[in-house]
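Q: Structure tokens for this one, please.
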Amino acid sequence: MTLASTAPDVSDLRDDAFDWALVDVETSGLIPRQHRVLSIAVVTLGPDGEQTGEFSTLLNPGCDPGPVHIHGLTPERLRGAPTFEQVAGQIAALLRDRVLVAHNAQFDYDFLTHEFARAGLRLPVSRRLCTLALNRRVDPPTADLRLGTLAAHYGVAQSKAHDALDDTRVLAGILRATLREAALLDLPLPLVACPPRQDPRFAPKPPKTPCAFRNPGRLAPGGPLTQGMKIAITGDTETVRTELVARSAAAGLNMVSSVSRHTSALVTNDSASGSSKARRAVAEGVPVLDEQAFLKLLDDVSPGTPHENPTTTEPAEPVAVTVPVPAARRHEPAAEGTSLAGRRVLVVGGVHQDAAEARTRVVELGGSAAVNLSASVTDVVLLPGGERDRRLPRITSLRLPTHDADWLTAPTSAAPSYGSERAPFPHVLPRGGVIDLPGTAAETRWDVSASWAQQTSCEIDVVAFIVDEDEQVSCDEDFVFYSAPESPNSSVRLLSDGPTEQTITVDLTAMPPAARKVVVCAAIDGVPTFGDVGAVQITTAPGSRATPLAQVTVDAATTERTMLLAEIYRRGPLWRFRAVGQGYDHGLAALARTYGVNITD
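A: Here is the predicted structure, written as tokens:
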């Protein structure tokens, strides 16, 4: 596996005028490489926001239409509709030379990419804009960011939810209103460059069969193989490698592609070959045996211990929020002058250490530390040098209260009132803070999002590792990153709808039994460090449109180039979220190797 980044450089284009193509698709499921588009609508707008075109059609997918109770598209309604291939030319003409816009744009973009690939065509989209990501930047005072909620907030009429054409017309109104709000805040648009994708084979490889047994540890001298042992192979083998691996996996062994301290044995016919696996085996003290000895042991593999199925165990006692001081809290109204409850504070200026200490103080006082200027910011703390920040004129025009650092000792101004429309602020966690996901978490998709200030000096990549009880991946494909943005069974995916935010989505219902944890990390591509980046805000929410359950601001980094941001992990039948904030000076390749990913330099 190689880590050559495909992330293109996206310039700040907020001053340009765009032609827009607003898109909504209804689909037979949620996985683009498996499911199909059932209906599509496209509405085009000019740079002035006026509508210039409209197209919509039902589509015959040639398969089961999936959740009819959601989209209402029965096989009878779709019978006689054109196939996607038959209308691909019309759709391409509407998309060409326009910015694709959708609510959760990566979803619509990925489905269109696969449909055009099946038709043997290239999707003619070079940039996209996600109105969900844009509204997360604006942060309007709404309970959530669902299409219907935003439509009500911006005064856009909605007639029929989950109808592609009506949803696209609603989206047009939301886009116009949100662009006005973004202009007031002087926010750069989160435009995402879309590299050409023509070949349907860009989807992840089919997964290997997950090993059903726990790792019993090292192979003992003279002892038997045991189901669940992690076995690596290096060098030439007399048996065809694919056959040897298949036979071993069928016997219950966990065949891995790299060597770590958790590897049970290395199989090689040339222990002195000097391969990277052989060198690592020597360094870690991993037992080494040749192919013939391994085949003899393979004839009589001892039974292993199956991975526990959390759904068959007795429910564990609920665990309260567990965090070091200061404890996790939701922002609740507080008496004037006693805390920053109900406020979102942006710290501007100051050297890195002073700014980090100020944001820590905000959290200690019950407030929320903002990373970017948004509609939810209630106060600004101006540290030395902050008067040169490019956002200060906008802060002044918005008449936001500004304070010096002494204000954090005893804040006095009253918290703002948003009324009943604003959802409660999320739990604010410190580094190391842990919170139980709700009891229904195993039936929900959870998003872990990371956001940061606009960068011009480097690219930041968010990645994820799906690991077992040994903190190791079961296969290289359990490493989710920019070139492999989803795990083989789509239980973990990487979403990117802007240059300042990336999200890892975790479908807990699809996690394999061996998976004990999803580790979410960030890495910098280039010379800069996280000390140069500054604060990184991490949130977790049950879906992209939902109100976050918890958030943490991590900004104590100095020379680190990779950062462990957060974890979602099992605790018996329950799942928990932990804010980590641990950094390392090495790069992403070294980090990946610690989790057992086979990286080629």
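A few notes: The first strand starts at residue 20 and ends at 27. DSSP finds 14 helices and 26 strands in the chain.
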